[in-house]
Structures are given as structure tokens and as C-alpha cells.
Amino acid sequence: MPADLPSRAHAAGMAAITGFDPSVAATAVEDLDRLVLLGIAAELHRATRLGAPGAHPPDPVADDLETAARHRWIVGHWLAALHGAGLVRRDEEGRYHGLHRPSRAELAAARIRMENAGAALGYPGELADMLLRSLRLIPELLRDEVGVQALLYPDGEPATAEAVYRDNMISRYLNLAAAEAVRDLAGRSPRPLRALELGAGIGATTADLLPALAGRPVESYLFTDLSPFFIDVARRRFDAPFLRYGLLDITGELPGRPGGLDLVVAATMAHNAPHAGRLLDQVARLLAPGGRMLLIETVEEHAQSLTTMPPALSPHEGSGPPPRYDERAGTTRTYLTRAEWLGWFARAGLRVEADLPPDGDPLTALSQRLFVATAPMEPS
């Protein structure tokens, strides 16, 4: 593989965000996060005992909100985030007190900053609408009366989901950088490519990868997801002759024979795996020598996702967070860190050829990354 793939992929990603100013990323993230934190604080102050004197553990606060059993863990997760942001105090016994009560003026100013931040990051108006709607619907979300899919697909339309996964600065950068890695792989492959995409969702990344395969020999590209809804959307959206579709739960076994794939794509979904190492071990077994995995992942949880990601991940049974068996075990963490992913790639025997954005780039403030990892060639 050409040694300059990381620089070429980075250049392709940057070309996709011409017109945006990455230097604003850190401040914009802070403004998005702050609005969500203040919105959660305002609702907890209004609707729970945290608005009164005294110190309280998370469980009674969850009771005040009439939280559904499967979402009860989220209240403690939110309180920990508020504590980290200095908006509530916590005593040595894990009880919370002194919750900040945002004023209307403070919330209004935070909303303006959030809208400006979204515009700076290239987010369409649908994303700001979703954040505000999720804050207004906190009680319904916690009572499990409204699901996250209703936020992402209001009236069944995909525009909001496109805003989250495709139509913004960091997604454009990562998807087009990934497309360059696919173009490179297809250009040097000695045979028609065999590809598998895991948890492809609405096909936000697929839509940028398919043009990179145009005119190249492709034997098959298996587009998979856990939900029949997304499979149906993809069937209507894409028409490449080599595309195949299938339902797949990544908590089980991945399909295919050992060494049978040249490309595996996992875009913004691998955090759903109960054990990251097990997932990468399976991918490594499926990849042919020189085959490649593209992993796009968030590597740090930001507050802007607190009202959407945790409710989406809650198990349907029990009252705790989704079961995890890697570094996240025993915590409410959603994502692995960059260092943790790099460690699991190494243990799976996959060599990371590109890890983008580069260190020091202002895009790193958005905490989403592209890892391009390659299976070793057969011994000569």
C-alpha cells in the first residue's frame, strides 16, 4: 500500500469540507454540549427533588421522573455528566445536591450559541431541531413513551438522520477519507472485491463509498443492519448491481468464510458491540491477506448526545446500561477511546495504516475518527 495513504485520505476529507473553518470546532462543540447540559439541569430542577434542599442518590430522582425500568441507569449517567461540568455537586456517598438552575436568559443565550455552532459545523437545521426536541421530550423519553427513532426520523423522513450521520463537517471529512481508502484498495486488488458493511443504517457512509467503486470489479457488497427498516431504505436508495442486503446482529457471529472478504466497513456502529475485541477478532478472521477494515467511531462521549444515544442503547430488559465486556464493563460508557481501539486492533493482528484526523488537527475536537486497518499478507 502506498505510504502516503494517510495524507491522501486526509486531503480527500479536507476537500469535502471546503468552505468550513475547522478552527471553530472546539468552541462549537463546547456550545453544543453546554446547551444540552443546561437543558437537562433545567428539567431535573423542575421535575425532581434536586430542585429542593438536601442530597439525593440517583434512584429517587429517577422515581420522580417516572423513569421506565430500562432507562433508570440514564439518570445516574446524566447526573455524573452534570457533576463533571460543575452543574451539580456530589458527596462522598454518591448523593447529588446543589443543582444549578438555569435562568431563561441563560437558556436562551445557550440556544443562540448552539444554533451558531451547528451552522459553523455544517449541521443542517434539522440537527438543531432534534436537539431542542429531545430536551423538550426528556420526560417522555425517560418514560419510554417516545423512542429515539422518532427523533431521528420525524414523520418517517430521513433528513434528521442525514444531518447526524452525513450532512455535517466531520461526517463529510470521515466519509470522503474512507472513500479514498476504498479507492486505493480497489485499485490494487488482484481480484473483484468482496465487501461487508456492518450496521450500515441509512447508508450515510455507503453513499460515499459506492462512487469509489465505480468502474472497479466488485464481486459483492453485502449491506447489513439489525433493522429491516434500514434494509428497505437502502434497497430504495441504491441500485449498484453488486449490492446484496441482509439482516445482521453484530452481537452474534459475522457471516462469511475465513479469509473470504477484502473489505469490512463499520461506520458509527461498532460501539454497539458488547466486546470490541471480539468484534475485531471476527473481522480479522474474515479478511483475506491484505484485506482492509474501515472503522469510523466516536472516541469520546459529548454531552450533545446525552438525550439521544443512552435511550437508544438501553436494553429492553433490566434497569442497567447495555452489557459490556471490554474496558467499558461496569461503567455507563458508550464509546471506547482512541487508545483502546488501537490496542484491540493490535491484539487482533490488524495493522492500523491510517488514523485520522491527524494529531493536532482542529477536527480532533469533534472526537470522531477513521481507522484504516489491514490484515497481514501471507508469509512469502
Automatic annotation (TrEMBL):
InterPro entries, sorted: Methyltransf_12, Methyltransf_Superfamily, SAM-dependent_MTases_sf
CDD domains (alphabetical): AdoMet_MTases (cd02440)
Listed Pfam families: Methyltransf_12
Domain Methyltransferase type: 196-292
Superkingdom classification of source: Bacteria
SUPFAM superfamilies cross-referenced by the UniProt entry: S-adenosyl-L-methionine-dependent methyltransferases (SSF53335)
Region Disordered, annotated ranges: 308-328
Name this polypeptide is given: Methyltransferase type 12 domain-containing protein
Organism per entry: Planomonospora alba
